[in-house]
Design brief:
The protein is of the alpha/beta class and 313 residues long. The protein is 43% helix and 18% strand.
């Protein structure tokens, strides 16, 4: 078993030569969210712009002995207004990432997905956990365990493509994608097995690109080579998956939390498919998980800069 956090440390190390990105921290009105933003700033991952009720933010900073000297604050009267103002900053190009503070995820995402004033693209918005599981050699991407409750097949096309693009940003040229179900055979009585088979065929036809897909696969033979060999599964993905695509949010949430509380994993998280990456933090997140989430957002933002520069030239 490798030392805990080693994968996150390698991830953060990739950002050392990059400039921190401007990030709107939405309604950071408790200690964990404000401290997390300031620690990410100290680590040169983000340049925070605090969006929310200024008096309340300064009161929290004073109570927690956090120095806000030189930190920009955009005053907004309440959490909903803070979410709308942060989204506007992203639309104006003043920030390249958003970070959730002490407001409900639904409040932030409600502002993000508004058709006229939000941050929608032609992709469906989805969430990825980037999990540092001590027994695995590489960080494991799990999607979607936080945004899409019961995704359709078409939704899953976007969910898979978002995860593959994220893996590319993290340095994996051809990520291995396991489409999970309770079994590794197609069974008409289990809809997730049919969708897994359809997604693999869609990848064969170029509707999903940049990764190797296989499914349906059960969790054991997706991540354990011995389990895959015992079941005689011949696949370039089985036992070696970089990305786990779950059937629905409930399955993904239970999988991620099981790895966290039973296997000692940490879970960094990012929302993809919007104009900017969105960092969804939790009060239960460790400092390393928070910084890893910011590092992922930073790498995505720089990758988008490079893409835009190529388009312009």
């Amino acid at each position: 078993m490798e030392p805990k956090h080693e994968k996150y440390q390698r991830l953060i190390a990739r950002t050392r030569t990059l400039e921190p990105v401007p990030c709107a921290v939405v309604h950071p009105c408790d200690e964990s969210s404000l401290r997390g933003a300031m620690e990410a700033a100290e680590a040169r991952l983000i340049v925070p712009i605090l969006v929310g009720p200024e008096k309340r933010i300064r009161a929290v900073a004073s109570d927690c002995r956090l120095n806000l000297a030189g930190i920009a604050i955009v005053d907004a009267p309440h959490s909903e207004a803070a979410a709308e103002r942060a989204v506007a900053l992203a639309r104006e190009g003043r920030v390249e990432a958003l970070m959730k503070g002490s407001l409900h995820t639904d409040e932030l995402m409600g502002a993000v997905v508004k058709r006229e004033t939000g941050l929608r693209t032609n992709r469906r918005i989805s969430h990825c956990f980037i999990m540092d599981v001590p027994t695995l050699e590489q960080a494991l991407i799990i999607t979607d365990a936080a945004v899409n409750i019961a995704p359709t097949l078409q939704d899953k096309v976007h969910i898979v493509q978002n995860a593959i693009d994220l893996a590319h940003t993290l340095g994996r040229a051809l990520p291995k994608v396991a489409i999970l179900s309770a079994m590794e055979t197609v069974n008409p009585a289990v809809p997730s097995t049919l969708e897994a088979a359809a997604l693999c065929k869609m990848a064969d036809r170029g509707q999903i690109t940049g990764g190797l897909l296989d499914g349906p696969l059960a969790l054991d033979n997706a991540i354990d080579l011995t389990a895959a060999r015992i079941k005689k599964i011949e696949s370039p993905v089985a036992g070696l998956a970089d990305i786990l695509v779950v059937p629905d949010l409930e399955a993904g949430n239970m999988l991620a939390k099981s790895l966290t509380f039973l296997a000692g994993a940490d879970a960094a998280g990012i929302v993809l498919g919007a104009r900017v990456p969105i960092i969804l933090t939790s009060r239960a997140d460790s400092l390393m998980a928070r910084q890893a989430s910011c590092a992922v957002a930073m790498l995505i933002a720089h990758s988008r800069r490079e893409h835009l520069e190529k388009v312009v030239t």
